[in-house]
Amino acid sequence: MSDPIKNNGELIGWHDPDENRKWVRENKSRQLADKRTTVADAIRKYVPDGSLLAMGGFGHIRIPMALIYELVRQRKRNLTIIGKTAVHDIDILIGGGCVSQVEVAYAFGHELRGLSPCGRRAVENGQVKVTGEISNAGFQWRFLAAAMGVPFMPIRSMLGTDTLRQSSARVIDDPWSGKPIGLVPACYPDVALFHVHRCDRFGNAQIDGIMVEDFELARAARRLIITTEEIIDHEEIQRQPWRTVVPFYLVDAVIEVFFGAHPIEMPVTYYFDEEHIAHWLEVSKTPEGTSRYFEEYVFGVPDFDTYLEKVGGIRKLTHLKQVMKLQPDLPSSIKEGES
Amino acid sequence: MTWENRYNLTELLACVAAGLLDSGSSVFVGTGLPLVAGMLAQRTHAPGLLIIFEAGGIGPQVPALPISVGDSRTYYKASAASSMHDVMSASQAGYVDYGFLGGAAMDCYGNVNTTVIGDWSHPKARLPGSGGANDVGSFCWRTIYLMRQQSTRTFVKKLDFITTPGYLTGPGARERAGLPAGNGPYRVITQLGVYGFDDATKRLKLLVLHPGVTVQQVQEASEFEILIPGEVGVSPEPTAEQVRILREIDPHGLVIGK
């Protein structure tokens, strides 16, 4: 067998599987304990400066925005972000000065909405360093390896490309077929932040719509903070335990945050606030505009409920629910509250 | 009446792309023009087209243009709302026939760059990176590219970065690297025409010109030499029905207005 081919990407988030087992044994409680707390306390307790951080959802789907804004509010610094398709989350964190490094499957873009002015500026002027490249499936399977407690996962993409050369993957000969096979190293984020549809006070969580990577990511991360649209009774979880995608022992903190993904889409529940996202993409074209945004929507508001009032309140939130249901806009006379 | 009055270039590209897809096959689509083409195919000649999204949507009847490949609309009336692990595994295991991608720049072997312009460690411009593109280009049996701006800056001799594999350095190179055997880039659709890849050399070859485009224009808009066969076809123009459906799919012109 030929020697493994090493590539140039920095190895981020890897632990020896025995070391991680030991960490889990010593740090993760198996107690069915009440984990309810506040956004501010959860971030203060579990996200020190320099953490390796991953968000659940998909870039601008089901993103824990209340937690993201809190990272900015607490002026967290030197975070390394897992760019497992990171879109609005990483953009806000880079704009807020929280990020020094990112491993990139997809970052600095907003899909159909175009490229990110703020993220690109930071990486092109050296404020944010790219530690390495990877593909979406590559990141997915780094989490799968960690979730399984194995050191790596074999993969048949990335081979032959610069994406592989700038990644932390290695290539060996498959002992059975003899063909070259990529190996992506397990990735254990220090902290993962999720926003879910509902969970109980212990952290047993249900998610509607696609899971994206969250089944694996919840099991890979050492710490998991969950915000939820709604906290439900444990009995409700017990009635349909097959709906639990994240069991309680993975979860460190639970916070109920209504509309906690705004301005992002919460599957089946509310749609993107295009107006607010467009506003961010416009103001973040300059550092000054970016600062003003944070003064207005983060430092200038005491809590997330006040933020929701500021972005349009109940009228706006109702509208975002209607768009999700594909309901047409109400006649303008009704919308403006006239009889 | 000239063609510009009846349809725009993006609509032509969407129709040409839709024409490559058939009922009973499966296609991995990204947002933007690839999805518009998939939706058009599903609403016209290929109602049984299985559309798959990388974030987990499987077999939807997409009601309106999604903004993200994870948008709820990607699993509207779908067979399954699954996970990335599930659909990426399915494509690695051979279940996905077509992959539909865009790209910033391409070389003669269909390798694509969406990562950086300039040197990787000190980029002149930073682009989003692979996302799922490398996986789609590695796993799907046939990859189709849609590139709206073919020029000497986008059809280049040497890429700054190979994000997604085409035929790498030529015949057999994909298999030697360990990529799944027997697949690769299949068609490239640009504003000028449709290209395939020569069987013997795996180099980009002109197949079809769009109405009014000449072979000379095609060659002038490329830094590398494009293989030109003896006979070159002409793309069919979009029908009034296709244009009507496209404007129904994308009423605000988010994609087809460009």
Word description of this protein:
The complex is a heterodimer of chains A (339) and B (258). Chain A is of the alpha/beta class. Helix content of chain A is 35%, strand content 18%. Chain A contains 14 helices and twelve strands. In chain A, β11 (223-231), α9 (234-239) and β12 (253-256) form a beta-alpha-beta unit. In chain A, α6 (136-148) packs across α8. With 258 residues, chain B is α/β, with parallel strands linked by helices. Chain B has eight helices and 14 strands. Chain B has helices spanning 3-6, 9-18, 33-43, 84-92, 133-139, 173-177, 215-220, 240-249; strands at residues 26-29, 50-52, 57-58, 80-81, 98-102, 105-106, 112-113, 116-118, 123-126, 142-147, 184-190, 193-197, 204-209, 233-234. In chain B, the strands form four sheets. In chain B, strands 2-1-5-10-11-12-13-14 form an eight-stranded mixed sheet, sandwiched between helices. A two-stranded antiparallel sheet of chain B has the order 3-4. In chain B, strands 6-7 form a two-stranded antiparallel sheet. In chain B, α2 crosses α3 and α3 packs across α8. The model of chain B has no long low-confidence stretch (mean pLDDT 94).
Helix proportion range of chain B:
10-25%
How many strands in all of chain A?
Answer: 12
Radius of gyration of chain B: 18 Å
The average pLDDT score of chain A comes to: 94
H/E series of chain B: HHEHEEEHEEEEEHEHEEEHEH
Biggest sheet record of chain B:
8 strands, mixed
Globally, the shape of chain B reads globular
Structural class of chain A: alpha/beta
Which geometry of chain A do the CA atoms define? globular
The helix/strand class of chain B is alpha/beta
In DSSP terms (H or I, runs of 4 or more residues), the helix count of chain A works out at 14
